[in-house]
User: Which sequence fits this backbone?
């Protein structure tokens, strides 16, 4: 009888171990992609009908800056068109693809706007952050931990527990490591951390230029910060004196758009030496901009609001106009938008400027050629 009981307990133990192994495998192993046709969900989207552009009226004026002058054009447009009638969080627009997280179905998706299809990349609950490498083959996922998803190899790996922030430099992943012993920036390569430099602030926000890293204090935690540049990934210098509610985004080459609050929003473009290139009579937050060849921003119509951290905690929403600046030609265009749209991540594509509307967490397009 004892042998029988031992066999029974051994069998039960093996079943428990196998079940636990299966559950662990399902958590670590990404779901296989599935291709489906995009479905209409009760209201018209860009896929079913493209609304015609309205007639526009244009007026030109000049803004005087500290160093140069830019020609400004104001243009009136109709309400933006709904692009995809579903909630998509943390979107990345890389036309014709849009990558993002569908919180309703708890899945990361890649939409193809030309084929009108989408692919499921990974099913995962409670994602609180998502970003993609330049080639879209790697994804950084944040929930209670940080995860690196290799989409090509179909692998999901947990990153070190002391990662506090992260960002991509093209296809390379950089991590901000914070521990009781030290705070430092490191490059993550082949599952190893290569230390770059110590960072002597607690909540840094990072961006990069072609020859180094820029960073400053996150205004959600500290509303007064300088702007630093790690030149050649070695020499650390301050390129901008401390500013209130500093927000900055680079063109990934040689220019940085900075915005801050000083008796109203102010902003300008500087180079990596901190020299002012051109100044604007508006300001905004980095999340409301993209900056490559062009600076494209959602600019709040209310430029007197000072509690900028409230926007991050959803205590405040903005009603924006759209601004596009060409640094080469010093050409600045304002686009008035009918309706209340809180613009995030506006991106110029062949079908117009696609943006995430923070008011309803959906994607829209403004048909600008």
Assistant:
């Amino acid at each position: 009888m004892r042998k029988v009981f031992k066999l029974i307990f051994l069998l039960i133990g093996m079943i428990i171990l196998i079940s636990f192994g299966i559950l662990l495998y399902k958590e670590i192993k990404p779901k296989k992609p599935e291709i489906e046709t995009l479905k209409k969900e009760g209201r018209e989207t860009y896929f079913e009908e493209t609304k015609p552009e309205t007639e526009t009226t244009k007026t030109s004026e000049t803004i005087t800056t500290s160093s140069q002058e830019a020609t400004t054009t104001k243009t009136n447009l109709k309400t933006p068109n709904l692009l995809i009638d579903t909630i998509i969080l943390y979107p990345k627009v890389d036309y014709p693809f849009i990558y993002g997280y569908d919180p309703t179905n708890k899945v990361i998706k890649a939409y193809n706007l030309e084929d009108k299809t989408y692919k499921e990349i990974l099913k995962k609950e409670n994602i609180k952050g998502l970003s993609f490498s330049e080639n879209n083959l790697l994804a950084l996922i944040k929930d209670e931990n940080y995860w690196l998803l290799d989409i090509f190899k179909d692998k999901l790996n947990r990153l070190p527990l002391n990662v506090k922030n992260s960002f991509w430099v093209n296809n390379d992943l950089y991590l901000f490591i914070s521990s009781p012993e030290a705070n430092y920036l490191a490059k993550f390569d082949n599952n190893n951390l290569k230390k770059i430099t110590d960072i002597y602030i607690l909540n840094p926000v990072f961006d990069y230029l072609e020859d180094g890293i820029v960073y400053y204090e996150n205004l959600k935690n500290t509303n007064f910060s300088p702007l630093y540049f790690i030149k050649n990934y070695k020499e650390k210098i301050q390129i901008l004196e401390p500013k209130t509610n500093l927000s900055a985004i680079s063109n990934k080459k040689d220019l940085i758009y900075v915005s801050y609050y000083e008796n109203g929003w102010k902003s300008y473009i500087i180079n990596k030496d901190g020299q002012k290139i051109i100044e604007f009579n508006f300001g905004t937050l980095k999340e409301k901009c993209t900056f490559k060849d062009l600076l494209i921003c959602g600019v709040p119509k209310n430029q007197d609001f000072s509690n900028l951290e409230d926007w991050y905690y959803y205590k405040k929403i903005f009603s924006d106009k759209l601004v596009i600046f060409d640094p080469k030609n010093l050409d600045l265009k304002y686009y008035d938008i009918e309706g209340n749209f809180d613009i995030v991540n506006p991106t110029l594509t062949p079908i117009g400027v696609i943006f995430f509307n923070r008011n309803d967490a959906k994607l829209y397009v403004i048909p600008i050629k």
Notes: The chain has two helices and 31 strands. Confidence is low (pLDDT under 50) at residues 23-66. The two ends are 83 Å apart (CA to CA).
